[in-house]
Design goal:
heterodimer, A: 149 residues, alpha+beta, two-stranded antiparallel ribbon, 5 helices, 21% strand, B: 436 residues, alpha/beta, FAD/NAD(P)-binding domain, Enolase-like, domain 1, 9 helices, 20% helix, globular
Amino acid sequence: MKRIYMIEDACIGCHLCEVACITEHSQSKDPVKAFLHEQHRPISRCTVEEWDGGVVSFSTTCRHCDEPDCMRACISGAIQKGNSDVVRIDTEQCVGCWSCVMACPYGAIQRNLTKKKANKCDLCPDRTSPACVDACPNRALVYKEGSQK
Amino acid sequence: MNYVIIGNSVAAVGAIRGIRSIDPQGNITIISRERHVAYGRPLISYLLGGLVTEKRMAYLPEDFYDKNRVNLLLNSEVVGVDTADRKVTIAGGDTIGYDRLLVATGGDPFVPPIEGMADKDRIFTFTTWDDASKLKALAPDIEKVVVIGGGLIGLKAAEGLHLLNKQITIIELADRILSAAFDRPAGRIVAKKMKANGIDVITEDTVIRVEGVGSQITGVTLKSGDFIPCDTIIVAIGVRPAATFLKGSGVEVNRGIVVNDRMETNTKGVFAAGDVAEAKDFFSGVKNPMPIWPDAYIQGDIAGVTMAGGSKEYTGGIAMNSIELFKVPTISMGITNPIEPQQYEILTYQDQENYLYRKIVIKDGLLAGAVLVGAVDRAGIFAGLIRERMDVNPFKDQLLTPDFGFVNLPKEIRSALFAPAGKVTETEPSVQAVGH
């Protein structure tokens, strides 16, 4: 399957991947509206980490594992691996127990505290290429066929 | 090939997918003594408290059993297994033959005899959907509840009842609640939060007598002599592997059904997985029952694959719990409270005021366990470090930081996990279970 990979040396820590992720998953899909006017602004599904004032930076996201630890830990069945191999979370079904947060070794599931729901990458089902990848000015994120490990 | 699975919770689901990843043809029959399709068992406290509706209890997509062509026998209790003739007997006398049998029956709540309990009506256990429904139906009549046992089940029952505005007293024999998963500071933080919510937590005490008139309960007398008034009692002392029906079958049952790394029992064709099984521990290699949800799935998956002729091995169970109690999220994993602390290196950070606590347990340079209270984000990174047996010495002093992440790990590790280099293009689609 196609997965998102990161190239650490190309990342400049601009966080545009996070902005694009939030925008894509907002109601308006407009960054200004999403950030200033939407009541329930989404939280980013990718995570930029930085070190030493930004000398090191990179963006991590869900691996859409072959045998997802999050799915196995989910107590409500909200997390399922679909036919396209994308690991998805049904937020209606999620009870916010954070078992997936406990289980994911990639640290790729976030807690949306206002909604009390787990939050994870869905590979942007409405797009041909995920928003974070398209937004990266340095091509530090790539979307291509590849294995999980 | 006839596969028979006794039990219909998460281990059974793992097994169904495991079987179907190898064998799309064989007959799979599930026998469950419960009347429901697989449901999120840990959700019963949410159901009791009104946080989820019955509609949300189903654990699987509606078409799961159809898609995987599973024959479901609900409301049927297995009373015996004939391992020589390879058949199981169901209450009522019917028998079902098998080529491969998986026992995934989970646990039965343990209710010790307590003086005065025999003729009382409102003494409940809390491990099934029906237990929750029964309590919910009675709720308008319930005022004061005593919960015997301050473990996971007891606390979740208490939380559910608290949401229904019942007055609750928890009575725990140990010196703190959740003693299996928590150390003293973590137990204290959660107990403090519970007390702030009006729940009484009594530790180092136990119920010696149920008081009342006829079938009605008026209260309980404790070992200390105290009397706690109540009209309902929840017994949540613990569960025992539900394996009594294997008596005389020749299947070895110790504290659970003893299995090897392929989930095979001592008896050919018979497998076990989940809370009923006794498989090896990740750290010690010693066999132990491990009543942990994700672990039950993993064991079920391995059992299913093995039963269908594939090969997959268990790397050992790691205790792991994520529990939010009264809005304080907690995650614990691995060895959190070593019996011989001098052999371990223990790092802690504590801010009782804000219900924050973090504990890291290291042995010989390897992460052995972690407790996170309050800030639990990305806890799974620790789970990964434990499972991969990674040397944590180079970044040991950073393990307690609240935003600990991959930036604290060596670059090679994050590249191996997240970079495109070295990732192969899958030319052929991998074998997929139907109905994932």
